[in-house]
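Try it yourself: sequence plus S-adenosyl-L-homocysteine, in.
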Amino acid sequence: MDSKKEKDYSTYFQHTFQAPNLKEARRRRKNTVQHLSDFSIPEDMKNIGEGKHFLIRTYGCQMNEHDTEVMAGILEEIGYTSTELEEEADIILLNTCAIRENAENKVFGEIGHLKAYKTENPDLIVGVCGCMAQEEAVVNRILEKHQHVDLIFGTHNIHRLPQLLKEALLSKEMVLEVWSKEGDVIENLPKARKGNIRAWVNIMYGCDKFCTYCIVPYTRGKERSRHPQEIIDEVRELARQGYKEVTLLGQNVNAYGKDLNDGTYRLSQLMDDIRHIGIPRVRFTTSHPWDFTDDLIDVLAKGGNLVEHIHLPVQSGNSDVLKIMGRNYSREKYLELFHKLKKAIPHASFTTDIIVGYPNETEEQFQDTLSLVEECEFDGAYTFIYSPRPGTPAAKMTDNVSLEVKKERLQRLNKVVNEHALKSNQRLEGQIVEVLVEGPSKKNEEVLSGHTRMNKLVNFKGPKTLIGELVNVRIVQTKTWSLDGELVEEAEVVNQ
Ligand code: SAH
Ligand code: SF4
Ligand code: F3S
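Structure, out:
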């Protein structure tokens, strides 16, 4: 949006007003990020939520899921209790995602829907946070059309939730505080984790890759890694508490450590250290092929608690498209890495992300994507139609591919992806796999479900006492996205 044409909204505010700016968010500054442990609850905020309820709706990736756990932790520290019912809530926060237009539309639908609850209960605080809050066009639209929103804050100042909430409670005006420059790394934030079996652990924040279609580098700021000891201590503590699995999180975990000290302690060293912690399973996501080094492959090949699943987004199978996407690898380079990994970790499952209909993608270029999927025989893929994100370079390109063609390509792609997903599952028929039991299946209370080390979803019958345990299951039936099995009392062979 042209900033000259924008209204000056600052006159609307008596209190906090700090609006986002995507151009500013694009800048990468040299100054070092501070690692702080200075989070504290202001004296007058302690117990402010006593007897009150909060509800957080989360959209988007695991990073957002984990941010929600931090916000829930903060709200619980000031006395609030979680609820799933809008009518019971005193605060409702929407933790939003900006990755594609349809993700944003969903959130705008929900914002509109919350107006009725606000009318019913004028004391209700409605807040919007997460990646959408980092976009000026979104904030302006909320200011213009959704005056029932009380609070907007971004991804870099979650730790200021108590102060922002206090302002929102006292003020009749909307409170807006979004930082377009990334914040520091704050270590001592409380976390109310969802469940006690699997846990998310941030290892780094932000992204400096600037793929030309992607909004994330603007909404999450520059790459900044947590100190290894902080991560190791957190994983040790989770193991002590009885968690069975951790997933190390970052937009591009392979860039871990580049920004720390002399940059020599990287993801491979971190994984090698975490390998020695007594927690049964360690995952990581997302890894960009760009920084996938040989020593990381060597560490992953050691196995143990490092599970055999690699999510390696390819985006396109055509080198020219990859080039304008700014992915920094060609089709050949991706395939070389893929085969190297497959050789080093023969039992590994591979999943990927693919975008179809990038501006001006030709039928031939799309067929290169299909043939790459055929060659890699992925266990699964998240597939998307390209969605222009205002402020990114790709959004400025003219595009000669119609939506109909893009939709048709997505269908053709999904057909091939599904065929390989089913085939890879069929290879497991009759085998005994290790399953971490997560709970009753979503579809059937009588059935337990969990994932294998390769991240395959398995459903089987068994007593609820097994929830949280690692058990052996024989696969008896295979579907495209899940496996049905039976519990094996004594392990015959554990090969997954
Ligand atoms: N950091 C990860 C990706 C995070 S976003 C990586 O680089 O691998 C998750 C996925 O959303 C991306 O891999 C991409 O496939 C998809 N995506 C991102 N921006 C998009 C856009 N503008 N339109 C459609 N899909 C997009
Ligand atoms: Fe987006 Fe690329 Fe960064 Fe992934 S690596 S978050 S796709 S810019
Ligand atoms: Fe969405 Fe932000 Fe994650 S845009 S995918 S919630 S980093």
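One thing you can check immediately is this: The domain at 195-307 is CATH 3.30.750.210 (Transcription Regulator spoIIAA).
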